[in-house]
Amino acid sequence: MNATAAPQDAVLVERLEGVIQLTLNAPKNRNSLQSPGIYEGLMAGFDALEQDSSLRAAVITGAGGAFCSGGDLRQLAAGSEDDVRTRMTRNAWLYRRIALSDKLIVAAVDGPAYGAGLGLAAACDVVVAGQSAVFCCAFARVGAMPDAALFWSLPARVGIPQARRLMLWAGEVKGSEAVSIGLADEYVAEGSALPLARQLARRIAQGPVRSFGRIKTGLRQAPMSMEQALGFQLDNAPGLFASDDFKEGAAAFFEKRAPRFGRGDE
User: Fold this and answer.
1) pLDDT, tens digit, for every residue of 31-46?
2) Which end of the chain is more exposed for a tag (fewer CB within 10 A), N or C?
3) Please, which residues bridge with residue 172 across strands?
4) What sign does the CA torsion over 196, 125, 97, 249 have?
5) Which domains does the chain have, with CATH numbers?
């Protein structure tokens, strides 16, 4: 892979086989979201994902043994209420971009994912936890409350009772337990999460991206009533059945071969 750098080298960008990999690269600050260039680099990466039709999936990971430590406590403590509100208003777009993207985003979590770093991982569509991964909704430890869209993403992943425990008691959750409660989707018992995350992202990139996008949109609106579910499928499914991907998938089924999705995007 060839790597290029986002502003101030804070986010390294790699592209290969339809996947864009965004690596948080501020190891001295344990990849804090308030490190210079991190926010800008991630947003630029999402711009590329949305605007480049050859990019069909993304991976977010961290350098230097940490995924993301969340916010910078010194900066937050030094700011006024208005300062925090301004910063939080800006950062909200980061989680919106992940949730609203039609393309799937995979988090490769090695080391700590604390606070807003947990929010960054939990907002992603697929979370892969490596051997060293540690998740923590740490806000109550310092007298704060969860932000980073965690009141949306955490209950959606683990349910309200488990989210309550994670938010109130701010306990650490390691890789295998994270999978057992739904906080992560895959666990790598030995080594890094990144190889498996890349593998899954390549699988996504080679798959029916429009179908994946509609599934993502539907799940973002869950739980639905029956009428909402029927309305959603009526609004979205007919277009997929008329798509090049469906025609290719049906042809591949009858020809007993693997489908080659995405050819209509070329």
Assistant:
1) 999 999 999 999 999 9
2) C
3) 136
4) positive
5) 3-205 (3.90.226.10), 209-265 (1.10.12.10)
